[in-house]
Amino acid sequence: MLSRMNEHATTVKHDDGLPQADRAVEHMQGHWVLARLGKRVLRPGGERLTRRMLAHAPLAGRKVVEFAPGLGRTTRLIMQAGPSGYTGVDRDGRVAAIIGPMVAPIGGTCFQADAAATGLPDGEADVVVGEAMLTMQSERGKRAVIAEARRILKPGGLYAIHEMGLTPDDLPDSLKDAVRRNLATAIRVNARPLTDGEWRALLESEGFDVVWSGVEPMALLGVRRNLADEGVAGVLRIVRNLLTHPDLRGRVLAMRRVFAKYGDMLDGVAFVARCRD
Ligand SMILES: C[S@@+](CC[C@H](N)C(=O)[O-])C[C@H]1O[C@@H](n2cnc3c(N)ncnc32)[C@H](O)[C@@H]1O
């Protein structure tokens, strides 16, 4: 009874239009906790790694599908590149509502679906982009999403991903398990990051050839990273929200402890892979 009351007490009080507004803060997925504080770039290698990745995936005049656009920071970059079409697919209906107006000027859409089963036609996309979403799928789920990207891409089309990595490649299984377990507890998401070699092998076994890869530190909560990604005003807003929302602050501190403890073993990795003919 008491725990139910507490749960009620820590639920976000006003519907802020963000996903999981109806969920108690204690049970909210980590990325939506950060979004509630004002964070907009929700991927491990930051916007710098996104930009490096997109530089290897030409978007101008291309039909682009984005898996899991979240709050749309990459959507904005994709739109600036001048694609001929944009389709976003996110399993959260609120994300679809946020992204829709951003892509309307080119007749783009965003709808709610599992990226593993989009219902999009075979072989029509030039580029599929997906960030910080494969990490949170099971091994089977990862394969299903990658297979779906392959199905909707034209032969020779590009799949660009940006995910959480484990390093080094020969990290003992016991440590991999400890990282995954502690991450899952802190971010309330079954996060299963992979080593560089494992990501690469996964893409290759699902019919892709890796044509580029890049790495950046996993600095989601780092001050310098946040200044780069969110700007000075954004960081000030996040700090103000941290000071005034103890429930959200508690979640962030728990996440920070895990990121600090396992920081040497985590990074942000990105790959651009070409769909084999
Ligand atoms: C950590 S956020 C990343 C958002 C954005 N890509 C970014 O990097 O800032 C994860 C996003 O993945 C979406 N997502 C997770 N699993 C998904 C799935 N199977 N199909 C579609 N979207 C999914 C969530 O709804 C959320 O928007």
Give a description of the structure.
This protein is α/β, with parallel strands linked by helices. The chain has a domain at 46-219 and 264-275: Vaccinia Virus protein VP39 (Rossmann fold, 3-Layer(aba) Sandwich). It contains ten helices and eight strands. Strands 1, 2, 3, 4, 5, 6, 7 and 8 form an eight-stranded mixed β-sheet that branches. Helix 6 (139-152) links the parallel strand 4 and strand 5. Helix 2 (30-37) packs across helix 10 (246-261) and helix 3 runs parallel beside helix 4. The longest helix is centred in the last third of the chain and has 22 residues, at 223-244. It is globular, with a radius of gyration of 18 Å. The relative contact order is 0.17. Residues 1-9 have low confidence and may be disordered. S-adenosylmethionine binds at residues 31, 41-43, 67-70, 73, 89-92, 95, 114-116, 131-133, 136.
Brief description of this entry?
The chain has 277 residues and is α/β, with parallel strands linked by helices. It is built from 10 helices and 8 strands. This is Methyltransferase.
The CATH homologous superfamily of the domain at 46-219 and 264-275 is named Vaccinia Virus protein VP39
Helix/strand-derived category reads alpha/beta
Radius of gyration equals 18 Å
What's the average pLDDT? 94
Helical run tally = 10
Small-molecule binders here are:
S-adenosylmethionine
Helical fraction: 40-55%
CATH class of the domain at 46-219 and 264-275: Alpha Beta
